[in-house]
Each structure stands twice: as C-alpha cells, then as structure tokens.
Amino acid sequence: MTDTWLVRNMRAIKARAYSRVVGANREPSWVLFDVSLPLLSVAAYAYIYKYMDAPEEFVGFVILGGAMTAFWLNVLWSMASQLYWEKETGNLSLFLIAPISRMSILAGMAVGGMFATTVRAVSTMVIGILVFGVAFSLSDPLMLALVFIVTLIALYGMGMMFASLYLIFGREAYHVSSLMTEPIYLVSGFYFPVKQLGFWTAMGASVIPITLGLDALRQLFFPSSGGLYGFASVTNELLILVALCVVFLILSKFSLDYMERLGKTSGRLTLRWQ
Amino acid sequence: MAVMSNLRTFKNAAWLGWQMEANWTDPFLFAVYSVVKPIAGTLILVFMYLVITGGETNTLYFSFMYVGNAFYMYVADVLFGMTWVIHDDREHYMTLKQVYIAPINFQYYILGRAAIKIVITSFGVILTLLFGVLVLGVDITLSSVNWTILILGLVSGLVCISVMGLALGGITFLTAKHAMGINEGVAGVFYVLSGVVFPITILPGWAQGVSKALPVTYWMETVRRGLMPEVMSGLPGGTGLEGFGNIEMMLALLLSAVLFMFLSEGIFRYADRIARRKGKIDWTSAY
Amino acid sequence: MDYAVETRQLTRVFNPKSKKEGKSVKALDSVDLKIERGELFGLLGPNGAGKTTLLKILSTLLLPTTGKAFVSGFDVEKEFVEIRKRINMVSGGEISGYGLLTVRENLWMFSQFYGIKSSVAHERIDKMLDQFGLVDKKNEKVRALSTGQRQKMNVIRGFVTNPEIIFLDEPTLGLDVNASRIIRDFIVDWVREDKGKRTVLLTTHYMAEADQLCDKIAIIDDGRILACDSPENLKKLVKMNSTLKLDVNLLNDISGFGSLQGVENFAAHDDPERNVTTLRFILKDESAVSEIMSLILSQGSKIMTVQKTEPTLEDVFVKMVGKGFD
Hints:
By secondary structure, chain B is mostly helical. Chain B has helices at residues 2-22, 27-53, 60-92, 96-100, 106-135, 147-172, 181-193, 205-211, 215-227, 229-234, 246-278.
C-alpha cells in the first residue's frame, strides 16, 4: 500500500457513507416516514402546551426539539448501535480486519445517514412552523450554523464512544440504547428549557452535547426568551461545546481501542446473538 | 385439532418472545430495566407539565394526561412488537423462512410473540400508575374504580390493538428495514389524535372527526372512565366524548375491534401473498 | 527465516460468562506452526478442532491467552495495524455484505477500506467477476444471489485487495461441485501467479480439497497440531500400501505375478462357477499396475473389475487420533 493513513481512512468514510446513501435511495419509503413521523410527536407535545396555555415559544421549543431528535436518533440508532447490526450480519469482522480506523467506519455511517437525518430535521421544522404558526428568528445565522455544526461534531463524537460498547456487548448495549432514548429527551431539555430542571441537573446534563446545543439554538431562534429560559449565554455554551468536541473525539478513540482489545481478549468481538 | 395446534403455536411463540425480551441479562438487571424504562418515558410529560404549572400535579388534567400516557405504552409496545417480530426474524436472525414454512398458523406465531409483550408492558403500566399515585399524586382511588368498564375496556382494546399490529406485521413483509417507521407512524397518529395526553377538544374540528373514527380514542376514554370516573366527569372543558355513555363507548370499542379484525386479516393475507410473489419472505435490506 | 505465519506455543481458552454457560474451553493448545511465504497451507481437522479460532487470532480478531503469533513478522497482539494492511479473510457460509447494494458496489466498498484507488478497484473487480463467471450479476443486488454466487462474491472480496496473506476459512463450505472447483482453481492460480509472495492459509474438513490444493497440511484436533507436512509425506506416515484387486476371467497360470517388480505380495482365488479369478496385490510401487495388466491380458484373460485403494488423509487422521472426520 502506497497510500497514506489519511487517504485510506477518507476512502473508507466515503465508501461506508456511499452504501448508506445508495441504500436509502433504493428504498425511498423512508422519506414518508422521516417527514411525517417526527411531526406526530411534535404535534402531540405542542398540543399539550396549547392545552395548558403555555407561552407561545414553548411550541417553538417543541418544534426545535423535535427536529433535533433526528440527530440524536441518528447517533444512537444509525451509528452507535449500527455496530451491533454489523456484528450480527457478519460485516463487523470484515471492517475490523481492514487497515482503517474504527472511527472512519462510524464517521462513514454518520455522514451517510446525514442526508436522511437532515431531511427529517428540516421537514419537522418547516412543517411545524407552518402548522403551528410559530415565528423563528434568523437574526444571527452565522452563530446558528456554528453552534449547530459544533453540537453535531460533539454529539457524533459521543456516539462513537457509545458505539464502542457494542464491540463487546450485544443485546445489553442495545437495551441500554433503548433505555437512554427517552431519559436523554428529558434531561437534555428536548421539549422544555433545561434550566427548568434546576442548576445541577442542567449542569450534569450539559455533558451531553445536545443539551447545550439545543439551549443555544433556542436562545438564537427565540432571542426574547434567552434571559428567561437560557441556561448560560450562547457564547459560553459554544465554548463548552467546542471543549466537548475535543473530549469526546479523544475519549471515543480510547474507548474504541479499549473495547476492541477487551472484545479480542474475551472472544466476544465478533460473537453473534449475545 | 386446528385449535390445539394454534394454541401450541401461540404458546411456543410466547415462550420465544419471552426469551428474546429477557435473556440478554440477568433477572435483576432485567427487572431494573423493566421498571426504569416505562417511568423514564413518562417523566418527560411530567416535567413538561411541571415547567408550565410551577409544580402542581394535583389537578384533573395531570391525572388525565398521566394515565393516558401510561396506557399508551400498550399501543406503542404492541404495535412495535408485532412489526419487530417480522423484521427481527427476517433481517437479524434470518429464521423467518423456517418458521414461515412450518405447518403452523403464522398469525398465531406473531400473536404469541406479541402476547408476551403485553404481559411485560402490563408490568410497566402498573408500575407507572403506582409511581404516579404514590409519588405524583395522580388521582386514582381503588374504591372509585369501575372494574367492569376497566377490564372489559382494557381487554377489548388490547384485542383491537393486537389485530391492528397483525396488519402492520403483514405490511412489514413488504418494506425495507428502515420502514420500522410504519409502527412508529401508526402509533404516533394514535398519540396525537386519540386523546392520549390531551382531550381531543384541543384539536381542529376536522382532526376531531378523525379522532372519533379511531378505536384507540374510545379505548383511552373507556379505561380512564373505568379507572378514575370522577376525574373524567370533572375535567374542565370535557374530553370531547361526553355524549357517549359507558355502554355506547364499550359498543363502539367492540365494533371497532371486530371491524379491525376483518380489516387486519384482509391486509395481512394480501401482504403475505404479495410478499411471497415478490420473494420478500427471506430478503434482507441492510445498508 | 521470515515466515508468513508463525505461532509459538499459542493457546486460547474461552471462559464462559457464568457457570450456567458451561466450563472453560481450550480451543487451541500450545500450537507451534510455521508457514513459509508462498505456501498454500492447509489446516485440516474436524468441526470444533480450533481451525477458526486460529484464523481469528491470525486475522487480529482474537487475542491469544498465552503464546505468540506473528503474521508477516508482526505480532498479532501489538502490531495488528501492520498486519491488517497485509491480510484478508474469507469464510465459508458468509452472510456479510449489504442486501440493497449491487455485487459491484459491495466489492468496491470493501476495497476502499484497504485504500485501493477506485479505478484500480473497479479494474480488479471486473477481472475477477469475469474469472468467476459473475459478470452478468455485477449489477444485481446481493440479496438476489444464490448461495454459490454469494460465496464467489465473498471470495472476490477477499482477493481483490491483493493481500500478502489470505486466510480462507472453509471457503467452499456448502457449495456445489462446480462452484467449489472454480474457487479452488482460482486459489491455486492466484498463488502461482506471484510465486513466493502470496500465501494462503486454508482451513477445511474436506480432505480431498486439502490434498488437491495444499503444499503443506497441518492436522489439528482438540486445539493441538497432530502432524504437519506435505500431503504425500503425511500419507507415508501411515504404513499402508496400495492394494489392487481385480476380477478376471479364470486364469490358468498365476506364477508370473509374484516376480513382478513393485508387487510386494499377491493372492489369487478362483471361482469356477462364475469363471472368475480374484487377484489381490499388495503393491510396493504403483508402477507395477501396468505390468500386472499386461500379464493378465497376455494370457488371453479379460479384466472385469479393478479396485485400487490408497492411503488417504483420513487414514492418517484415524491412525493418529483413532477417529474419523465428523
């Protein structure tokens, strides 16, 4: 091999992403589900707030939270636990004997799933805004984009860390993912400002990148609510998110290496039907 | 003979379903998981409520919302469970074709797998209700419970949901792996339109019309009337179904169950035939 | 010497998660193996012998419990990154791949993990698809392939990266005669194409496959290497000569057979009712067969049946372990 480590891993990311994109396009029924389904839970929570005569921006918070669940679910089910499916279908061992970083495989999955995820998120936002007539501010698009991108990088880094669990566990890790889905909605403030959970709970939840990411996006989309509902200033939240990016990417590398070694020692690395 | 065979299939499928649900960890951890998961799911609504009301849970609406959400677990878990059987057996364990060609009634196999989901979910529902009553002040008193309405309503509703799940299971034969969203979609429609966490009166007029055509709407109303009749009669603004008496509610529910039984059977058979024609019984759709 | 694969007292024990799951299993027990570069090396053993476990260690999917293993001079435990650049693996009965992708797409995707340029990958893929008779399937979705076609695709996946060392774990398992033959022929040609640089470690429990393909064979059972040598030398370990049995028309004179070179011993039995003489020869040397035939024919007799037995690898195994293959 005359190619460099970087070129090889970039090719791996591209290849794994390709299979995701192509696969999705060959079974386009996902469009229907990914556009309509998130809207249902958004609608339910929006109507709960309407019934309780909550301030209008809470409906907006629900729409935003609903859109961001697309990314959280992509991390949890299309990236982290994907290793579980790869193991069960026999692909994992082929990935593991290839001379590429495990993070490249996961990054490829994430990148490949990004299109469908983005469709889901954008459609949730757009339809939610149209149906419920909520006004979102776009006064600082640069900051919005920056917060969004940094949040995703940190979130996907965390997802890679979770993925390492699947190198050694099977259904246990799958059920942990299942267990984590809704509590994360709760503590990360997907449907209400995380500040309402109290300072220390919000602080603890800030370890999950989407908590601060959502909070910052809420403040940017609804500038008038920032003081009342924001946990920290947008700038501070962005800085913390940058730090989380670095931390999670490093941790995920160590975690993947460690779990792989543990799996190889115990013989469970490619053991199916655990 | 056929009845015994179907019962045996049902029983074996239920045993398999239990193994799939429970044998991934030791009993203690499974018990913890079974307790934490349903309660964690409910807490989102609880906190959403607390954020707006400033901490007061001793209201009729809170009880309405909490109980509805607890029983909704049946809808989500059973619909998911029945579609997941097809998906899991076909794509993951690749055993679907072996079961399919066995001399059994395949629908009873799916129902058996779903039955164990109902049992497990029942524990979750009971725990959630207990948590609600003991910790959050949900207004349920045993002396006020109308057991007849509750039990009859619960059972007919579960039958109805199960046969709907059967139809969805049939449709799953024809769809790719990412279309597990089918069950999510149908369950989501019920969540929004069936008065699960808010009375249907808050919905636009046309949506209320749709709500009144859904069996889950009557199911929700029935079990709530059975479990907490005073809350239901006192809810400000009503639930949108005050015009229906208990007997009418039960009849509406039973009628829906029967109707869906025929509809689901038809959908399942049709989907099954198409799947066989297109060779989708044992296809994989991973990417 | 620079070996392609070397193991030193390699041992692997699997411990259960709990007592309920049974006892510890010693899958490999002090395995010492040396495979030279350019060798087509076979690992022959029954089910559960430890073949797949050994391959998993060598392909860096599993760590040894004790002992050492080296692939292309690199330690499997510490230098696995270097090993992965030089190897690939194909297993029999593989279900890997993505059902929604075409054959070509699947092969291309896996080739990219080895850093092969797309154009080069496509060229190799097309060539190999042609060699395996899968050209007309290249745009078919993987889920539409038959078992044999899928396995051929898997074999292509393993070879398309042009590894220095390839591990083949029962690659013809469950395939029909034709598909198996194509794969075996390909393996032999591939090694010969770049003699001395390409190494194959093949596990199988088909003794004919091992006999046909391999330069050297190790026989493994219960995690231990019982013998390791060329197929011919292994068969010589078993002190069984060839036996030749013929049924011929009634012979008048059998004296000439005993003096034939290569005939260690013989026996004759007449059956006048059937007008048959049954001749049984113990041969030192198979070249005696033609002389035997000539002598029979020179007496005007006709040969009705001929039966020849040779020592097989299973005989070697039976001799060593006292049981046959499952």
